[in-house]
Amino acid sequence: MKDTSKGWLNGLLGVIIFSGSLPATRVAVADFDPVFLTAARATIAGMLALALLRFARAKRPSGRDLASLCLVALGVVLGFPLFTALALEHITAARSVVFIGLLPLATALFGALLGQERPHPAFWLFAVLGSSCVLAFALAQDAGGSSVGDLYMFAAIVACGYGYAEGGRLSRRIGGWEVISWALALSLPIMGALCLATLPGEWGSIGLPAWTGLVYVSLFSMLIGFFFWYRGLAQGGIAAVSQLQLLQPFMGLALAAALLGEPVSRAMLAATIAVVGCVAGARIFAARPPASPPMRRKAEANR
Questions:
Q1: How far is it, in rounded angstroms, from Cα 97 to Cα 235?
Q2: Contact at 8 Å (CB) between 275 and 15?
Q3: 39-43, 59-63, 184-188, 275-279 — which is least confidently predicted?
Q4: Cα(244)–Cα(12) distance, rounded to whole angstroms?
Q5: Measured between alpha carbons, how far is 37 from 89 in angstroms, rounded to an integer?
Q6: What is the pLDDT of residues 232-279, one digit of tens each?
Q7: Which end of the chain has fewer CB atoms at under 10 Å, N or C?
Q8: Residue 178: is it exposed, middle or buried by C-beta count within 10 angstroms (0-12/13-18/19+)?
């Protein structure tokens, strides 16, 4: 299997894991303070990551990689979890899908800037169309919102898009699992202290669903999902593989239908088919950079 195909497979596995992140966060913030939830998930994942790094005897990152790892941590360890937790105090998980629809485009834009990727112009057309399909579907399902929650979600998308792109770029040098593991390890002292400072005053009122949500976002959303996601971005290209995130909202809805018996509407099926088509189109044209002027002149001369 070619690296590009492996990248899309790893990326898809990462998206499947991430699809449960927002519902799990929504359940967890019902009983946990958003700041504590952010710090706790990073602390739990950070301790596991540190143990994994020591067990694998991973090589310490170079000085030039430390700054990038700190930026990754700011984006995906602190920024996205905190902003989404704050947002989900004001809006529903369904409403957050509106903004998740913008994440693939944000990641692709940052990937083009940081990774110097130059996809074909048609790629951007499919990327915008795919995001538009998700946005239209999400707005049709849940029109209500909160300006405060919406602003938090917008900040979350910017932070996450940058963290994904920076992590994907860095994964080409030091490996996908190492990137998230070192980012978590570097942030562990701060996040651990914040976790202790924001401990709940009353533990008895915290229900099992909130604990389940905390476990999920700590193990899967904060650590395991990134093993596949960053490796996929490094192998298949940041801009290209990022478009798989367009499927994330529909995977979450399908999961709700399978586990909770929620109905699957015709609108969902139609939107899913349209998004799959956009992802397929983006995959085709992501590997076709636009011809440079000398190449175009040479091609014209050969006609």
A1: 27
A2: no
A3: 275-279
A4: 6
A5: 12
A6: 998 988 888 888 887 887 786 676 566 556 566 677 677 777 877 877
A7: C
A8: buried
Distance, CA of 129 to chain centre: 19
Are the CB atoms for 107 and 166 separated by under 8 Å? Answer: no
With a threshold of 0.85, does the pTM exceed it?
no
SS3 state of residue 200: coil
Contact 241, 6 (CB under 8 A): no
Section 40-44 average pLDDT: 96
CB distance 101 to 214 below 8 Å: no
CB 163 within 8 A of CB 75: yes
CA angle (12, 70, 151) in 5-degree steps: 70
Tokens, residue 170: 């860095």
Residue type, 270: A
Are 264 and 254 in contact, with CB atoms under 8 Å apart? yes
Amino acid sitting at position 151: L
